[in-house]
Amino acid sequence: RNFYYITILRDPVSRYLSEWRHVQRGATWKASLHVCDGRSPTTEELPSCYTGDDWSGCSLKEFMDCPYNLANNRQVRMLSDLSLVGCYNLSVMPEEQRNKVLLDSAKENLKRMAFFGLTEFQRKTQYLFEKTFNMNFIAPFTQYNSTRASSVEIDEQTQNHIETLNFLDMELYDYAKDLFLQRYQYMRQKEHQEARRKRQEQRKILKAKQAHNKEQSDDNSTTDYIGNVERWR
User: Which catalytic reaction applies to this protein (predicted)?
Assistant: First the structure.
């Protein structure tokens, strides 16, 4: 069997707000073991942002203020090889070096995936998936612009703060968007080239048929003339 890694990325600010709303309703990741290099992180390496069973009802400010919040740069962390930076042990290397290694790893892994899509480009995502794997969905994807994240009204200062908290995800998303559109354009050009090749083949077949029919018609005309000459004699 052939196995392929695929993923869907989302605008970092929208994704962050969506996760906050999800947590606000009582969602947790307690079942996630965060295993890296064969072990889960210690409570010192990965402290909790809340006490109790969940973080339901937390405000956006509380969500942003927790320095251990795994919502920060989640997409980079989940796409990168954490073992390169000592997993969740922040003392292995300087923060700046750690961030660069994580971002480079996430970009490289994304580039090597057979397919990835973007939430903000549903139709193009569907097109790329279908062309990549030669499969067709029953129904076309729908671009929903009204989501839980879009219903959250934030001011410019909060927007900038969220972007700062997710600065690695912001850079990854810019890279992903550029790569995604390159792949889309490549597939479209390939499709147009294939369509043009088929049209050329069809024209060749049509010309060959027309030439064959003309040849038969000329032969029939010659035969008819010779037959008439014989009768005239």
Answer: alpha-D-glucosaminyl-[heparan sulfate](n) + 3'-phosphoadenylyl sulfate = 6-sulfo-alpha-D-glucosaminyl-[heparan sulfate](n) + adenosine 3',5'-bisphosphate + H(+)
Residue 219 pLDDT class (50, 70, 90 cuts)? low
Is residue 25 pLDDT above 90, yes or no?
A: yes
Domain boundaries, position 25:
6-193
* Structural domain count of the chain: 1
Q: Within a domain: residue 17?
A: yes
Residue 160 resides in a domain:
yes
Structure tokens at 122: 């549903």
**Which residues are registered as beta bridge partners of 118?**
9
Only one residue has tokens 């097109």, namely: 127
Name which residue leads in pLDDT, 126 or 225. Answer: 126
Distance, CA of 60 to CA of 80 (rounded, Å): 27
DSSP state of 205: H
The pTM of the full predicted model, rounded to 2 decimals, is 0.84
Does residue 209 lie within any of the structural domains? no
